[in-house]
Protein backbone atom coordinates (compact mmCIF):
# COMPACT_ATOMS: atom_id res chain seq x y z
CA UNK A 1 0.00 0.00 0.00
CA UNK A 2 2.76 2.43 0.98
CA UNK A 3 4.80 1.55 -2.10
CA UNK A 4 1.75 2.13 -4.29
CA UNK A 5 0.94 5.47 -2.68
CA UNK A 6 4.63 6.47 -2.69
CA UNK A 7 4.99 5.94 -6.44
CA UNK A 8 1.59 7.49 -7.19
CA UNK A 9 2.45 10.55 -5.08
CA UNK A 10 5.43 11.17 -7.36
CA UNK A 11 3.33 10.99 -10.51
CA UNK A 12 3.77 7.37 -11.58
CA UNK A 13 0.64 5.61 -12.79
CA UNK A 14 -0.01 2.85 -10.30
CA UNK A 15 -2.49 0.04 -10.75
CA UNK A 16 -2.98 -2.23 -7.77
CA UNK A 17 -4.79 -5.54 -7.81
CA UNK A 18 -6.17 -7.45 -4.83
CA UNK A 19 -8.67 -10.25 -4.36
CA UNK A 20 -10.19 -8.37 -1.41
CA UNK A 21 -13.16 -6.41 -2.76
CA UNK A 22 -13.73 -4.54 0.50
CA UNK A 23 -10.10 -3.36 0.58
CA UNK A 24 -10.23 -2.29 -3.06
CA UNK A 25 -13.43 -0.30 -2.46
CA UNK A 26 -11.86 1.55 0.47
CA UNK A 27 -8.65 2.30 -1.43
CA UNK A 28 -10.62 3.64 -4.40
CA UNK A 29 -12.43 6.00 -2.01
CA UNK A 30 -9.07 7.18 -0.68
CA UNK A 31 -9.48 5.41 2.67
CA UNK A 32 -6.54 3.29 3.91
CA UNK A 33 -7.79 -0.22 4.79
CA UNK A 34 -5.75 -0.13 8.04
CA UNK A 35 -4.44 2.46 10.47
CA UNK A 36 -1.15 3.92 9.28
CA UNK A 37 -0.07 7.51 10.00
CA UNK A 38 0.49 9.90 7.06
CA UNK A 39 -1.15 7.62 4.52
CA UNK A 40 -4.69 8.98 4.39
CA UNK A 41 -3.99 12.39 2.79
CA UNK A 42 -1.75 11.18 0.03
CA UNK A 43 -3.90 8.16 -0.72
CA UNK A 44 -6.90 10.43 -1.09
CA UNK A 45 -4.98 12.84 -3.31
CA UNK A 46 -3.43 10.20 -5.57
CA UNK A 47 -6.76 8.42 -6.05
CA UNK A 48 -8.52 11.71 -6.81
CA UNK A 49 -5.81 12.72 -9.29
CA UNK A 50 -6.09 9.37 -11.04
CA UNK A 51 -2.54 8.17 -10.32
CA UNK A 52 -3.66 5.22 -8.23
CA UNK A 53 -6.50 2.80 -8.71
CA UNK A 54 -7.15 -0.58 -7.21
CA UNK A 55 -8.66 -3.45 -9.20
CA UNK A 56 -10.26 -6.62 -7.88
CA UNK A 57 -8.50 -9.76 -9.07
CA UNK A 58 -7.32 -8.23 -12.32
CA UNK A 59 -3.62 -8.97 -12.29
CA UNK A 60 -3.72 -9.35 -16.05
CA UNK A 61 -4.96 -5.81 -16.64
CA UNK A 62 -2.45 -4.46 -14.11
CA UNK A 63 0.46 -6.22 -15.81
CA UNK A 64 -0.64 -5.37 -19.35
CA UNK A 65 -1.00 -1.67 -18.58
CA UNK A 66 2.28 -1.18 -16.69
CA UNK A 67 6.03 -1.71 -17.13
CA UNK A 68 6.88 -3.31 -13.82
CA UNK A 69 5.00 -5.25 -11.13
CA UNK A 70 5.78 -5.31 -7.41
CA UNK A 71 4.48 -8.52 -5.94
CA UNK A 72 3.69 -7.85 -2.28
CA UNK A 73 1.37 -10.70 -1.32
CA UNK A 74 1.42 -12.20 2.18
CA UNK A 75 3.76 -15.04 3.13
CA UNK A 76 2.27 -16.42 6.36
CA UNK A 77 3.60 -19.21 8.58
CA UNK A 78 2.53 -22.82 8.39
CA UNK A 79 1.76 -24.51 11.76
CA UNK A 80 5.37 -25.79 11.91
CA UNK A 81 6.74 -22.26 11.45
CA UNK A 82 7.88 -22.77 7.86
CA UNK A 83 6.80 -20.30 5.20
CA UNK A 84 3.52 -20.77 3.36
CA UNK A 85 4.08 -19.76 -0.27
CA UNK A 86 0.58 -20.41 -1.63
CA UNK A 87 -0.13 -16.73 -2.33
CA UNK A 88 3.21 -16.33 -4.10
CA UNK A 89 2.36 -19.34 -6.27
CA UNK A 90 -1.09 -17.99 -7.16
CA UNK A 91 0.12 -14.50 -7.95
CA UNK A 92 3.05 -15.85 -9.99
CA UNK A 93 0.60 -17.90 -12.06
CA UNK A 94 -1.58 -14.82 -12.60
CA UNK A 95 1.43 -12.71 -13.59
CA UNK A 96 2.73 -15.45 -15.89
CA UNK A 97 -0.59 -15.68 -17.70
CA UNK A 98 -0.57 -11.91 -18.15
CA UNK A 99 3.03 -11.96 -19.44
CA UNK A 100 1.92 -14.46 -22.07
CA UNK A 101 -0.30 -11.77 -23.59
CA UNK A 102 2.25 -9.00 -23.25
CA UNK A 103 4.33 -7.91 -26.22
CA UNK A 104 6.64 -5.45 -24.42
CA UNK A 105 9.34 -6.03 -21.79
CA UNK A 106 8.04 -6.23 -18.20
CA UNK A 107 9.88 -6.74 -14.91
CA UNK A 108 8.40 -8.74 -12.05
CA UNK A 109 9.74 -7.68 -8.64
CA UNK A 110 9.15 -9.91 -5.62
CA UNK A 111 8.79 -7.64 -2.59
CA UNK A 112 7.18 -10.19 -0.27
CA UNK A 113 9.46 -11.75 2.35
CA UNK A 114 10.39 -15.16 0.92
CA UNK A 115 13.03 -17.70 1.92
CA UNK A 116 16.18 -17.98 -0.23
CA UNK A 117 15.59 -19.81 -3.47
CA UNK A 118 11.90 -18.91 -3.79
CA UNK A 119 12.26 -16.38 -6.59
CA UNK A 120 14.66 -18.53 -8.60
CA UNK A 121 13.16 -21.97 -7.99
CA UNK A 122 9.44 -21.27 -7.56
CA UNK A 123 8.51 -17.90 -9.08
CA UNK A 124 10.68 -18.10 -12.21
CA UNK A 125 9.53 -21.58 -13.34
CA UNK A 126 5.87 -20.63 -12.81
CA UNK A 127 6.30 -17.37 -14.74
CA UNK A 128 8.06 -19.18 -17.60
CA UNK A 129 5.51 -22.02 -17.73
CA UNK A 130 2.46 -19.74 -17.73
CA UNK A 131 3.91 -17.11 -20.07
CA UNK A 132 5.58 -19.64 -22.38
CA UNK A 133 8.44 -17.14 -22.41
CA UNK A 134 12.01 -17.12 -21.18
CA UNK A 135 13.09 -15.17 -18.12
CA UNK A 136 15.89 -12.82 -19.14
CA UNK A 137 15.35 -12.15 -22.83
CA UNK A 138 11.53 -11.99 -22.67
CA UNK A 139 10.82 -10.57 -19.22
CA UNK A 140 12.79 -9.45 -16.17
CA UNK A 141 12.83 -10.75 -12.60
CA UNK A 142 14.11 -9.13 -9.39
CA UNK A 143 13.78 -9.65 -5.64
CA UNK A 144 13.73 -6.39 -3.70
CA UNK A 145 12.82 -6.69 -0.01
CA UNK A 146 11.34 -3.79 1.91
CA UNK A 147 12.42 -2.63 5.35
CA UNK A 148 9.52 -0.44 6.42
CA UNK A 149 8.00 -0.56 9.89
CA UNK A 150 4.29 -0.39 10.59
CA UNK A 151 3.45 2.90 12.23
CA UNK A 152 6.07 4.72 10.15
CA UNK A 153 5.62 2.70 6.98
CA UNK A 154 5.01 5.64 4.67
CA UNK A 155 7.97 7.63 6.00
CA UNK A 156 10.17 4.54 5.70
CA UNK A 157 9.03 4.05 2.09
CA UNK A 158 9.95 7.60 1.14
CA UNK A 159 13.27 7.62 3.07
CA UNK A 160 14.82 4.21 3.22
CA UNK A 161 18.35 3.50 4.57
CA UNK A 162 19.20 1.21 1.67
CA UNK A 163 17.84 -0.42 -1.44
CA UNK A 164 18.47 -4.07 -2.09
CA UNK A 165 18.09 -5.41 -5.61
CA UNK A 166 18.44 -9.13 -6.19
CA UNK A 167 18.52 -9.60 -9.96
CA UNK A 168 18.04 -12.52 -12.33
CA UNK A 169 20.11 -10.69 -14.94
CA UNK A 170 21.67 -7.27 -15.48
CA UNK A 171 18.81 -5.90 -17.57
CA UNK A 172 16.25 -6.68 -14.84
CA UNK A 173 18.48 -5.06 -12.20
CA UNK A 174 19.20 -1.99 -14.37
CA UNK A 175 15.48 -1.45 -14.99
CA UNK A 176 14.63 -1.59 -11.29
CA UNK A 177 17.62 0.51 -10.22
CA UNK A 178 16.67 3.20 -12.75
CA UNK A 179 13.15 3.26 -11.35
CA UNK A 180 14.44 3.65 -7.77
CA UNK A 181 16.95 6.31 -8.89
CA UNK A 182 14.17 8.27 -10.53
CA UNK A 183 11.92 7.82 -7.49
CA UNK A 184 14.46 8.86 -4.84
CA UNK A 185 16.30 11.36 -7.08
CA UNK A 186 18.88 13.26 -5.00
CA UNK A 187 17.98 11.29 -1.85
CA UNK A 188 18.82 7.92 -3.38
CA UNK A 189 20.17 5.68 -0.59
CA UNK A 190 23.03 3.19 -1.03
CA UNK A 191 21.97 0.42 -3.39
CA UNK A 192 23.15 -3.17 -3.10
CA UNK A 193 22.82 -5.24 -6.26
CA UNK A 194 23.14 -8.94 -5.76
CA UNK A 195 21.71 -12.37 -6.52
CA UNK A 196 18.06 -13.23 -5.93
CA UNK A 197 18.87 -15.54 -3.00
CA UNK A 198 21.20 -13.07 -1.28
CA UNK A 199 18.48 -10.41 -1.44
CA UNK A 200 16.01 -12.86 0.06
CA UNK A 201 18.43 -13.70 2.89
CA UNK A 202 19.22 -10.01 3.61
CA UNK A 203 15.62 -9.49 4.69
CA UNK A 204 15.61 -12.47 7.07
CA UNK A 205 19.05 -11.64 8.43
CA UNK A 206 17.97 -8.03 9.13
CA UNK A 207 14.74 -8.96 10.90
CA UNK A 208 16.41 -11.76 12.84
CA UNK A 209 19.19 -9.49 14.09
CA UNK A 210 16.64 -6.86 15.19
CA UNK A 211 14.63 -9.55 17.00
CA UNK A 212 17.89 -10.77 18.58
CA UNK A 213 18.69 -7.26 19.82
CA UNK A 214 15.27 -7.10 21.48
CA UNK A 215 15.55 -10.51 23.15
CA UNK A 216 19.09 -9.64 24.21
CA UNK A 217 18.10 -6.40 25.93
CA UNK A 218 15.10 -8.17 27.50
CA UNK A 219 17.55 -10.70 28.94
CA UNK A 220 19.62 -7.86 30.39
CA UNK A 221 16.37 -6.36 31.73
CA UNK A 222 15.64 -9.62 33.53
CA UNK A 223 19.09 -9.52 35.15
CA UNK A 224 18.58 -5.86 36.17
CA UNK A 225 15.41 -6.79 38.03
CA UNK A 226 17.48 -8.99 40.32
CA UNK A 227 20.02 -6.23 41.09
CA UNK A 228 18.89 -3.48 43.50
CA UNK A 229 19.29 -0.09 41.86
CA UNK A 230 20.01 -1.41 38.36
CA UNK A 231 18.07 0.01 35.41
CA UNK A 232 18.07 -1.50 31.90
CA UNK A 233 17.29 1.89 30.36
CA UNK A 234 20.58 3.31 31.55
CA UNK A 235 22.39 0.14 30.47
CA UNK A 236 20.83 0.43 26.98
CA UNK A 237 21.61 4.14 26.67
CA UNK A 238 25.24 3.56 27.55
CA UNK A 239 25.52 0.52 25.27
CA UNK A 240 23.89 2.42 22.42
CA UNK A 241 26.54 5.14 22.50
CA UNK A 242 29.02 2.57 21.25
CA UNK A 243 28.89 3.02 17.47
CA UNK A 244 29.39 -0.69 17.00
CA UNK A 245 26.17 -1.39 18.92
CA UNK A 246 23.94 1.60 18.12
CA UNK A 247 21.02 2.90 20.19
CA UNK A 248 18.05 1.52 18.23
CA UNK A 249 16.04 -1.59 19.05
CA UNK A 250 17.39 -1.73 22.56
CA UNK A 251 14.11 -0.83 24.27
CA UNK A 252 13.38 -3.53 26.80
CA UNK A 253 9.74 -4.51 27.16
CA UNK A 254 7.25 -7.34 27.03
CA UNK A 255 8.74 -8.77 23.83
CA UNK A 256 8.31 -8.29 20.10
CA UNK A 257 5.08 -8.95 18.20
CA UNK A 258 3.63 -8.05 14.83
CA UNK A 259 3.33 -9.73 11.48
CA UNK A 260 7.07 -9.83 10.76
CA UNK A 261 9.58 -10.69 13.49
CA UNK A 262 7.77 -13.73 14.96
CA UNK A 263 6.96 -15.11 11.49
CA UNK A 264 10.34 -14.36 9.92
CA UNK A 265 12.42 -15.73 12.80
CA UNK A 266 10.39 -18.96 12.66
CA UNK A 267 10.64 -19.18 8.86
CA UNK A 268 14.44 -18.74 8.89
CA UNK A 269 14.73 -21.37 11.63
CA UNK A 270 12.59 -23.86 9.68
CA UNK A 271 14.44 -23.11 6.44
CA UNK A 272 17.87 -23.53 8.00
CA UNK A 273 16.88 -26.67 9.90
CA UNK A 274 15.84 -28.12 6.58
CA UNK A 275 19.34 -27.38 5.29
CA UNK A 276 20.72 -29.41 8.20
CA UNK A 277 21.78 -26.36 10.24
CA UNK A 278 19.38 -25.72 13.15
CA UNK A 279 19.68 -22.14 14.41
CA UNK A 280 20.32 -22.44 18.16
CA UNK A 281 20.80 -18.69 18.49
CA UNK A 282 17.32 -17.92 17.12
CA UNK A 283 15.86 -20.71 19.23
CA UNK A 284 16.95 -18.73 22.29
CA UNK A 285 15.69 -15.44 20.80
CA UNK A 286 12.25 -17.00 20.35
CA UNK A 287 12.29 -18.61 23.75
CA UNK A 288 13.02 -15.30 25.51
CA UNK A 289 10.23 -13.69 23.51
CA UNK A 290 7.74 -16.37 24.49
CA UNK A 291 8.34 -15.98 28.22
CA UNK A 292 8.82 -12.20 28.29
CA UNK A 293 5.10 -11.19 28.22
CA UNK A 294 4.45 -13.46 31.19
CA UNK A 295 6.63 -11.11 33.27
CA UNK A 296 3.54 -8.91 33.42
CA UNK A 297 1.59 -11.73 35.10
CA UNK A 298 4.47 -12.46 37.50
CA UNK A 299 4.64 -8.77 38.52
CA UNK A 300 0.87 -8.65 38.90
CA UNK A 301 0.83 -11.68 41.22
CA UNK A 302 3.75 -10.34 43.26
CA UNK A 303 1.72 -7.20 43.90
CA UNK A 304 -1.81 -8.58 44.24
CA UNK A 305 -1.39 -12.22 45.21
CA UNK A 306 -4.24 -14.34 43.85
CA UNK A 307 -5.72 -12.69 40.74
CA UNK A 308 -9.19 -14.26 41.08
CA UNK A 309 -11.79 -11.48 40.83
CA UNK A 310 -9.13 -8.73 40.60
CA UNK A 311 -9.77 -5.92 38.13
CA UNK A 312 -6.87 -5.41 35.74
CA UNK A 313 -6.62 -2.39 33.43
CA UNK A 314 -4.77 -3.00 30.17
CA UNK A 315 -3.35 0.08 28.45
CA UNK A 316 -2.63 -0.78 24.81
CA UNK A 317 -3.65 -3.68 22.60
CA UNK A 318 -1.79 -3.08 19.32
CA UNK A 319 1.57 -4.85 18.88
CA UNK A 320 3.21 -1.40 18.80
CA UNK A 321 2.11 2.22 18.77
CA UNK A 322 0.60 3.88 15.69
CA UNK A 323 -1.02 0.77 14.29
CA UNK A 324 -4.24 -1.17 14.86
CA UNK A 325 -2.49 -4.45 14.05
CA UNK A 326 -2.71 -7.12 16.77
CA UNK A 327 -0.99 -9.98 14.96
CA UNK A 328 1.22 -11.75 17.51
CA UNK A 329 0.66 -8.82 19.89
CA UNK A 330 2.22 -9.57 23.28
CA UNK A 331 -1.02 -8.51 24.91
CA UNK A 332 -2.71 -11.71 23.69
CA UNK A 333 -0.85 -14.20 25.93
CA UNK A 334 -1.03 -11.67 28.79
CA UNK A 335 -4.82 -11.28 28.64
CA UNK A 336 -5.35 -15.01 28.09
CA UNK A 337 -3.33 -15.78 31.23
CA UNK A 338 -5.11 -13.10 33.27
CA UNK A 339 -8.47 -14.62 32.26
CA UNK A 340 -7.17 -18.08 33.09
CA UNK A 341 -6.30 -16.83 36.59
CA UNK A 342 -9.85 -15.49 37.04
CA UNK A 343 -9.09 -11.76 36.69
CA UNK A 344 -11.56 -9.25 35.21
CA UNK A 345 -9.88 -7.43 32.34
CA UNK A 346 -10.74 -3.98 31.02
CA UNK A 347 -8.68 -2.76 28.06
CA UNK A 348 -8.19 0.43 26.13
CA UNK A 349 -6.31 1.24 22.93
CA UNK A 350 -6.62 4.43 20.84
CA UNK A 351 -7.26 2.52 17.59
CA UNK A 352 -7.09 -1.27 18.04
CA UNK A 353 -10.35 -1.93 19.93
CA UNK A 354 -12.32 -3.04 16.82
CA UNK A 355 -9.54 -5.54 16.06
CA UNK A 356 -9.37 -6.61 19.73
CA UNK A 357 -13.09 -7.38 19.68
CA UNK A 358 -12.45 -9.99 16.99
CA UNK A 359 -9.72 -11.53 19.20
CA UNK A 360 -11.32 -11.46 22.67
CA UNK A 361 -15.02 -10.95 21.84
CA UNK A 362 -16.86 -10.34 25.12
CA UNK A 363 -14.32 -12.10 27.34
CA UNK A 364 -12.99 -8.69 28.38
CA UNK A 365 -14.43 -5.20 28.73
CA UNK A 366 -13.47 -2.33 26.47
CA UNK A 367 -13.00 1.17 27.89
CA UNK A 368 -13.64 4.40 26.01
CA UNK A 369 -10.47 6.13 27.22
CA UNK A 370 -7.35 5.45 29.27
CA UNK A 371 -8.90 7.25 32.23
CA UNK A 372 -12.09 5.20 31.91
CA UNK A 373 -9.99 2.04 31.78
CA UNK A 374 -8.31 2.80 35.11
CA UNK A 375 -11.56 3.17 37.10
CA UNK A 376 -11.66 0.82 40.10
CA UNK A 377 -8.72 -1.23 38.83
CA UNK A 378 -6.51 -3.17 41.23
CA UNK A 379 -3.59 -2.99 38.83
CA UNK A 380 -2.79 -1.30 35.50
CA UNK A 381 -0.45 -2.84 32.94
CA UNK A 382 1.06 -0.58 30.29
CA UNK A 383 1.50 -2.74 27.17
CA UNK A 384 1.79 -0.42 24.15
CA UNK A 385 3.86 2.76 24.07
CA UNK A 386 1.17 5.09 22.63
CA UNK A 387 1.93 8.83 22.95
CA UNK A 388 -1.34 9.43 24.81
CA UNK A 389 -0.32 6.97 27.55
CA UNK A 390 2.97 8.82 28.01
CA UNK A 391 0.97 11.89 29.05
CA UNK A 392 -0.75 10.16 31.99
CA UNK A 393 0.31 11.51 35.38
CA UNK A 394 0.56 9.60 38.68
CA UNK A 395 -2.66 11.32 39.76
CA UNK A 396 -4.52 9.92 36.73
CA UNK A 397 -3.82 6.51 38.24
CA UNK A 398 -4.11 7.22 41.96
CA UNK A 399 -7.41 9.11 41.70
CA UNK A 400 -9.22 6.37 39.80
CA UNK A 401 -7.79 3.02 40.73
CA UNK A 402 -8.97 0.92 43.66
CA UNK A 403 -5.34 0.37 44.59
CA UNK A 404 -2.71 2.21 42.56
CA UNK A 405 -0.40 -0.47 41.22
CA UNK A 406 1.23 0.24 37.85
CA UNK A 407 3.28 -2.20 35.79
CA UNK A 408 5.22 -0.40 33.09
CA UNK A 409 5.77 -3.02 30.38
CA UNK A 410 7.46 -0.62 27.93
CA UNK A 411 9.42 1.70 30.20
CA UNK A 412 7.60 4.91 29.29
CA UNK A 413 7.20 6.32 32.83
CA UNK A 414 9.85 7.93 35.02
CA UNK A 415 10.35 5.59 38.00
CA UNK A 416 11.50 8.49 40.21
CA UNK A 417 8.18 10.31 39.77
CA UNK A 418 5.82 7.35 39.70
CA UNK A 419 7.29 5.23 42.48
CA UNK A 420 6.85 8.13 44.94
CA UNK A 421 3.10 8.13 44.36
CA UNK A 422 2.14 4.47 43.88
CA UNK A 423 3.33 0.89 43.72
CA UNK A 424 5.38 1.07 40.54
CA UNK A 425 6.99 -1.95 38.90
CA UNK A 426 8.76 -1.86 35.54
CA UNK A 427 10.57 -4.18 33.16
CA UNK A 428 14.31 -4.04 33.80
CA UNK A 429 14.15 -2.03 37.01
CA UNK A 430 15.95 -3.44 40.05
CA UNK A 431 13.78 -2.84 43.13
C1 LIG B 1 9.80 -4.87 11.32
C2 LIG B 1 11.16 -4.27 10.94
O1 LIG B 1 11.54 -3.28 11.90
C3 LIG B 1 11.10 -3.64 9.54
O2 LIG B 1 12.39 -3.17 9.16
C4 LIG B 1 10.62 -4.68 8.55
O3 LIG B 1 10.49 -4.14 7.24
C5 LIG B 1 9.27 -5.21 8.99
O4 LIG B 1 9.40 -5.79 10.31
C6 LIG B 1 8.83 -6.25 8.00
O5 LIG B 1 9.44 -7.32 7.94
O6 LIG B 1 7.94 -5.98 7.18
P1 LIG B 1 7.50 -3.90 12.31
O7 LIG B 1 7.23 -5.32 12.69
O8 LIG B 1 6.47 -3.15 11.58
O9 LIG B 1 8.86 -3.81 11.43
O10 LIG B 1 7.78 -3.06 13.65
P2 LIG B 1 9.04 -2.85 14.62
O11 LIG B 1 9.17 -1.41 14.88
O12 LIG B 1 10.24 -3.56 14.11
O13 LIG B 1 8.56 -3.55 15.97
C7 LIG B 1 8.36 -4.95 16.07
C8 LIG B 1 8.15 -5.35 17.51
O14 LIG B 1 9.34 -5.18 18.26
C9 LIG B 1 7.08 -4.53 18.25
O15 LIG B 1 6.29 -5.38 19.03
C10 LIG B 1 7.88 -3.58 19.13
O16 LIG B 1 7.20 -3.21 20.30
C11 LIG B 1 9.08 -4.45 19.46
N1 LIG B 1 10.29 -3.66 19.82
C12 LIG B 1 10.90 -2.88 18.90
C13 LIG B 1 10.81 -3.77 21.10
O17 LIG B 1 10.29 -4.51 21.96
N2 LIG B 1 11.93 -3.05 21.41
C14 LIG B 1 12.55 -2.25 20.50
O18 LIG B 1 13.58 -1.63 20.85
C15 LIG B 1 12.01 -2.15 19.22
Task: Explain how this protein is built.
Helices cover 45% and strands 13% of the residues. The protein has 19 helices and 13 strands. It has a six-stranded parallel β-sheet, with helices on both faces. α1 packs across α3, α5 runs parallel beside α6 and α9 packs across α11. The longest helix has 29 residues. The radius of gyration is 24 Å and the shape is elongated. It starts with a helix and ends in a 5-residue tail after the last strand. It binds uridine-5'-diphosphate-glucuronic acid (UGA).
Write the layout of secondary structure elements.
Elements: H1 2-9, E1 14-18, H2 21-28, H3 40-48, E2 52-56, H4 59-64, E3 68-71, H5 86-101, E4 107-110, H6 118-131, E5 140-143, H7 153-158, E6 163-167, H8 170-184, E7 191-194, H9 196-224, H10 232-240, H11 261-274, H12 280-291, H13 294-304, E8 311-315, H14 331-340, E9 344-348, H15 353-360, E10 365-366, H16 370-374, E11 379-382, H17 387-390, H18 394-398, E12 405-408, H19 415-421, E13 423-426
Parallel strand pairs: 1-2, 3-4, 4-5, 6-7, 8-9, 8-11, 9-10, 11-12, 12-13
Antiparallel strand pairs: 5-6
Helix pairs in contact: 1-3, 5-6, 9-10, 9-11, 9-12
Give the assembly state of these chains: single chain
Q: What order do the strands of the largest sheet run in, or round the barrel if closed?
A: 10-9-8-11-12-13
The bound ligands are:
uridine-5'-diphosphate-glucuronic acid
Structural category: alpha/beta
Report strand %.
5-15%
Overall spatial form: elongated
Distance between the termini: 45 Å
What is the CATH C-level name of the largest domain?
Alpha Beta
Weakly predicted, low-confidence segments: none
- Nearest-integer average pLDDT: 97
Instruction: Please count the beta strands (DSSP E, at least 2 residues each).
Output: 13
Profile the largest sheet: 6 strands, parallel
Residue share in helix = 40-55%
CATH topology of the largest domain: Rossmann fold
* Radius of gyration based on Cα positions: 24 Å
Helix tally equals 19
CATH homologous superfamily heading of the largest domain:
NAD(P)-binding Rossmann-like Domain
The CATH architecture classification of the largest domain is 3-Layer(aba) Sandwich
Q: How many domain regions?
A: 2
Amino acid sequence: MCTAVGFASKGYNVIASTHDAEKAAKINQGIPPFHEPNLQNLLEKTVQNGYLKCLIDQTEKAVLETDLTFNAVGTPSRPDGSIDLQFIETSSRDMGKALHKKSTYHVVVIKSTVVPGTTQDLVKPILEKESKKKCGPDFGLCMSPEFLRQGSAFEDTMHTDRIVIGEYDKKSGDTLENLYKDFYAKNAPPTIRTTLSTAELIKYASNSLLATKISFINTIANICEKIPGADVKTVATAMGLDKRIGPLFLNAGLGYGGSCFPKDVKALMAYSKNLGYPLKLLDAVEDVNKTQPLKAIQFCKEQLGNLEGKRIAILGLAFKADTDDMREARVIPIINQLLEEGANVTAYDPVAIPVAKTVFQNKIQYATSAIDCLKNADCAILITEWEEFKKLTPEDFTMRMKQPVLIDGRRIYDPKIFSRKMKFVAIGLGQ
